[in-house]
Design brief:
The two termini are 21 Å apart. It is globular and about 55 Å long. It folds into 2 domains: 4-111 and 178-304, 3-Layer(aba) Sandwich (Rossmann fold); 119-167. It is an alpha/beta fold. The chain has 13 helices and 6 strands. The longest helix has 30 residues, at 249-278. Strands 3-2-4-1-5-6 form a 6-stranded parallel beta sheet, with helices on both faces.
């Protein structure tokens, strides 16, 4: 990870805007590390950087993948290393920006070795409830660090344990590489207000129509926060949100907004926990800084870490 600087943190902190200004200051280019912004389309739902931000410096791995394609950490690592190599070939600094912890760890620590998927086993596991899967994983791997609310990851950990005959947690072979970067965050009230405003803005600018026109997508893409809630709103299945029927269109929309805001706040909380535990990047509280101050401080961090400044 020579000549690579990381700017990581939870959703809605303002990473994209700050990173673009830092990259412009350092003559750098940006590599996105977001599991959903990598897909083409659904720009509002995935909160992609706006056109003004994207125009400041070259961006990579944002809106580049078909929404029909599956994504994972291994595929991301290959794509990101290719983008980083291309940026270096032009004598530029690469700045990796995002909040998808596993994708970032795939770059900073490499990938763990794990057995291939077993379709038959996966089909049997798919029939179990999340509670049963959690119980099974705890029995197989008492020291598991998997997010037990993430059904897909719980199933994969069970699969690894059963296929290999050893607990998945004992098979991690992450190898840390020399990396430098900053973990940006905000005070909880500040962050939650930003999340709430952003979701409201998504609805004001047409996210319902965007989702309605999306069509088929891969299983990975279908995990986008807010997708299920908006589709249920479009289908009229709002009892899952409100517990009532006969609501006005306006109140149903408000319930949908509130549900997505809550999901996003929970996601941000999980991201904060991940980065505090998994990274050794220097922490920076953006609630205490203006945009210009944050850009100046992060730019100085990059230089102080010995990251080579890009050339125009």
């Amino acid at each position: 990870m020579r000549d690579v600087f990381f700017i990581v943190g939870p959703t809605a902190t303002g990473k994209s805007e700050i990173a673009a200004d830092v990259a412009r200051e350092l003559g750098a280019e940006i590599v996105g590390a977001d599991a959903f912004q990598i897909y083409r389309g659904l720009d509002l739902l995935t909160a992609k950087p706006d056109a003004t931000t994207l125009a400041k410096v070259p961006h990579h791995l944002i809106g580049t993948m078909s929404i029909l394609e599956e994504m994972n950490a291994e595929k991301f690592r290959k794509l990101a290393l290719g983008a980083i190599s291309e940026i270096r070939s032009r004598g530029k600094l690469a700045i990796v920006v995002g909040g998808s912890g596993l994708y970032i760890k795939a770059l900073t620590h490499g990938l763990s070795v794990a057995p291939a998927a077993d379709p038959d086993l996966r089909a049997r596991l798919s029939e179990l409830s999340l509670a049963d899967l959690q119980k099974k994983l705890r029995a197989l791997d008492p020291k598991t660090a998997v997010d037990l609310k993430n059904r897909r990851r719980v199933m994969r950990a069970i699969e690894i344990s059963l296929v290999s005959g050893k607990p998945a947690s004992t098979q991690r072979t992450w190898k840390s590489e020399t990396t430098q970067g900053v973990f940006v965050f905000r005070e909880r009230d500040d962050l939650y207000q930003r999340i709430n405003r952003r979701v409201e803005g998504m609805f004001e600018t047409g996210v319902i129509e965007e989702v309605g026109n999306a069509g088929a997508m891969s299983e990975t893409a279908s995990k986008m926060i807010g997708l299920r809630e908006i589709r249920e709103l479009l289908d009229g299945k709002i009892s899952i949100l409100s517990g009532r029927r006969g609501d006005t269109d306006s109140s149903r929309g408000e319930q949908c907004v509130a549900a997505i805001q809550q999901c996003t706040r929970r996601y941000a909380k999980r991201q904060l926990t991940w980065f505090r535990r998994q990274s050794n990047f220097q922490a920076l509280n953006l609630s205490l800084l203006s945009q210009n101050e944050a850009v100046k401080e992060i730019s100085q961090m990059a230089k102080s870490f010995g990251v080579a400044q890009g050339n125009d």
